[in-house]
Amino acid sequence: DKPQESPLLWEVFGPDSSGLLPTNYTSWGATATRILMRFSLAAFLAGLLAFRVRRGMSFSRRNPFVAQTQILIAVVAAAMMMVVGDSAARAFGIFAAASLVRFRTNIRDPKEITVLLVCLGLGLAAGVGRWDMAVILTLFVLLALAVLEYFERAQVVRSMELSVETRNVDRTNTVLTEMFARHKFDVELRELNQQDEEDPLGKIVYLVNLSTDVSTSVLSDEILAADRENVDTVEWEQKESQTYLYK
Questions:
Q1: Which residue in 88, 137, 201, 241 has a CA-CA distance of 20 to 30 Å to 62?
Q2: Residues in Cβ contact with 71 at an 8 Å cutoff, skipping those fewer than 6 apart
Q3: Does the structure show a pLDDT above 80 at 225?
Q4: Which of 100, 123, 153 is the last residue in one of the domains?
Q5: Any idea what the Cα angle at residue 222 is, between residues 216 and 223, rounded to 5°?
Q6: Which residues have a Cβ under 8 Å from the Cβ of 13 and sit 6 or more positions away?
Q7: What is the rounded distance in angstroms from the CA atom of residue 178 to the CA atom of residue 121?
Q8: Distance (Å, rounded) from C-alpha 81 to C-alpha 183?
Q9: CB neighbour class for 146 (10 Å; exposed up to 12, middle 13-18, buried from 19)
Q10: Are residues 181 and 104 in the same domain?
């Protein structure tokens, strides 16, 4: 008798049979859809964990590189499990290949480490003849990186310490708070010293989180223009980001 073909929906969403490879499905479309569904589910669930709401911590206070890496690692893990299947030999092969990777350079963006693992997965998939998974994994990761890096600029911040010496602390502080509110900056007041008879210049110090495309020179000109008669000096100093949960 002719073997009964499985429905397309069952091939896409159903569990794997023992030893069943995607090449055994009735159509390449079912194979590609099944792989994409698994990658998408892994990325979605990892995204829920990576971007979970945390009490007392806004999204601007998180390291976006770590969240992006967590999502990509979930996708790589899904690909590895599909490559391994029920084969113990492949599992040991992946372990041996991963043990060859050594990081001797400090990589600022942990996404690049994950991309290296993706390349490892691509090589493993190609090596066992799973060209379909290698191609789909490449396209899926390219799309995921495009989406993650599109929103990256808005999430990456640099911590700057703003020091302003002024003849009228109250007036200048009002100017600063209005500017911060207008630009929607994340700020924290660090020091507020009033002027007195011995020292006619007071001092205001803020820790300001700025996006990478904001110019401190433009902000300094804006402060001086708004309170030129009182502001004496404006100084910006780069600080190690204390807002990132991960160092």
A1: 137
A2: 43, 46, 47, 50, 144, 148
A3: yes
A4: 153
A5: 90
A6: 37
A7: 51
A8: 46
A9: exposed
A10: no
Q: Is residue 3 part of a domain?
A: no
Three-class secondary structure assignment of the chain: CCCCCCCHHHHHHCCCCCCCCHHHCCCHHHHHHHHHHHHHHHHHHHHHHHCCCECCECHHHCCHHHHHHHHHHHHHHHHHHHHHCCCHHHHHHHHHHHHCCCCCCCCCCHHHHHHHHHHHHHHHHHHCCCHHHHHHHHHHHHHHHHHHHHCHHHHCEEEEEEEEEECCHHHHHHHHHHHHHHHCCEEEEEEEECCCCCCCCEEEEEEEEEECCCCHHHHHHHHHHHCCCCEEEEEEEEECCCCCCCC
pLDDT digits over 33-48, tens only?
Answer: 888 888 888 888 888 8
Spatial separation of the C-alpha atoms in residues 195 and 85, rounded to whole Å: 72
- pLDDT score for 223: 92
Among residues 100, 125, 153, the one where a domain terminates is 153
Determine whether 162 is exposed, middle or buried from the number of CB atoms within 10 Å of its CB (0-12, 13-18, 19+).
Answer: buried
Give me 134's structure tokens. 């290698």
How many C-alpha atoms does 65 have within 13 Å on its Cβ side? Answer: 15
Confidence of residue 102 (pLDDT cuts 50, 70, 90): low
Q: CATH number for the domain including 191?
A: 3.30.70.260
Both 54 and 172 in one domain: the answer is: no
Q: What are the tokens at 51?
A: 């971007």
